Amino acid sequence: MMEKAKQHLLFESGNELAAFAAKQINYHVMGYYPITPSTQIAEYLDEMRVRGEHDIALVPAEGEHSAAGICYGAATGGGRVFNATSANGLLYALEQLPVQSGTRMPMVLNLACRTVSGPLSIKGDHSDLMYTLNTGWLIFFATTPQEVYDLNITALRIAEQVRLPAIVAFDGFFTSHQKQNAQVFTDDRAVRDFVGEPTGNGVLDVEHPITVGSYMNEPDLLNNKYQLHLAMEKAREVIPAVFAEYRALSSRTLSPITTCLAEDADLLLVVLGSAYHTARSAAMKLREQGKRVGVVTLGVLRPFPADELAEACKNAHTVIVADRQDSYGAGGGNLSLELRAALQAAGASTRVLSRVFGLGGRDFFERDALALFAECERQDAPKLDYLGKQAGDTDFHPPAYFAPIREQDASGLTLCREEGGGLTVKGATVRETLARPKRLAPGHGACPGCGIPVNVNLLLRGIEGNVVLLFQTGCGMVVTTAYPSTAFKVPYVHNLFQNGAATLAGLVTLYHQKRARGELPEGDITFVMVSGDGGMDIGMGSALATALRGDRLILFEYDNGGYMNTGYQLSYSTPMGAKSATSHLGEHGFGKRFFHKDMPRIMAATGMPYVATAAESNPNDFIKKAAKAQYYAKNGGTAYLKCLSACPLNWGDVPSTERRVIAAAVDSCYFPLYEVERGITTLNYDPEQSGKKRPVTDFLGMMGRTRHLTGEGYGEVARAIQDEVDRRFRRLQLLSAHPEL
Fold first, then answer.
1. Quick check: 361 and 126 in contact, CB under 8 A?
2. How high is the pLDDT of residue 1?
3. How many CB atoms lie within 10 A of CB 104?
4. Phi and psi, residue 508, nearest 5°
């Protein structure tokens, strides 16, 4: 029997306690990609890393699919592996989950549950978690921050014992962000002794080479899945045993199911997650009124505790199951469906009602739980319903916020045409384009000094005629389209980070098909995808494929140098040395550890007809390049235009100075202005020739996120950045001077 270990009190959130448990375990590797509301877990681990509290290798992926691949790769080498995600991030990685379980590679994934888009919502429900039920992963569910901590420790032990990966799920923004008192082990060694030492080196054991992930036919695949089934069944025995050991160590009880007043209840409410505690409070009030009601929740979803759950519910007259998701067309959420199956197998005749609640993070109050219990008493209650729904007005027609911008209203100002073997652009100045109506209205919610609306409007100044916009997820999308209003005066589509270019390519293909068939009226449309906030990290593959196909559209990137819409974590375009929520400063960290990505050169390597960089500090150049981008998108294929976009909130500078900050980036050659037109590079502005060349620390020193690089102790990093900026600029000078290169 284990002896109780010393503990102390912390006042922390579920995310903080997940990170704290990971630190105490001291995993080998965490592959991650930031997504709200799970992002804080990686942030807290990075803070602890720079303080020297653990030596977990934190690997920032360019998307959740790759983060899952990083984790799987580390697991094949016998590593202890950790990850955290939410919502669409989980779905993007979903095809990797059966790979991990099918090859029996244990790890722990924290899931801060959140609404799956679309429409886009970042609030919490369980629609993401339910996609994982058939992936072969162990699934635990925490109702409190304390349980997040406890389950992170026990899940690893169980996962390694049965050789299956495990999910620790909890409610996004409720359990993930709300702070509560929690007991944690004072000595990390107590945790490490409990989980035990990692064993085996997998594919890193070169003396005993193995093959992981063989190609299989029937019956081998059948046997593989049968063995996975056996492992899950073994977990039914292992879970209670590990929970019992953990109780001896911590004095806290974990259980596959937890009940409150359920033993003699006529009416039962079954609910997952943090809502359980609200339901308990309601049940206690009803008990005082003489009503025999109770509440049940599950701490384990896989393996599903069917026998225990049926035993807890079979004597009740009515059970109402509250699901934070719906399995559309199946007659209820997944929990209600599985409870019905469990009761049927047990021979119980209990009436089961299904109620969908709390979607999109809608709060669950005591009055809601009381309403659910009242539903149980209704003999005519429908089997499936939504709590708190509104039918809506089917005759409602949303008002037009703006008059449509007709083609003639936005044409005739900029002339871009072939002349003398090249393109000439006339009328592409700030003054000459003042008459063009703005496609983006001033009624948006961007932060003061945000560069996104400035840059989008500069881009659209140079574009003639009709425009259809697609925005990837990011600040630019969030601040302009808060339902039911919009800041756009032109047609607009949104899709997720990783698929924006492909989505717009599909729309462009349809447009040309309809034009060819005579199904559209006369006129022309320019299609523009707007990306930023790291969208050209996770969405780079989609954008490159679009460029390689030559789909006739403009890819416009506002580069604000980070994942700003999730609270500023490092992106691949963040300056080296910059501090962010995932690249902290400390004794063991100097900020982001690798150079910023040169996306224009990557795009130019596709051979696309037009690539350019632009800056609000040089507006006439910006508008001219937008006009050229439109020409090539209509006549030559895909065009790519990138600008540096200010983010005062996360850059740590003053909104009124942003244009000067952007100018410093240009003059220091950190963000050079050039274009690659039909393979020929032209440097549009050379600060060396104009006598305006500045050291890169002038630019970095203007922002709080990089100001430390101008001080003592960071000289080596600053020199490395200057050398890389100079190297890239010298290359551009050579390319510009020698068109054949």
1. no
2. 59
3. 17
4. -65, -40
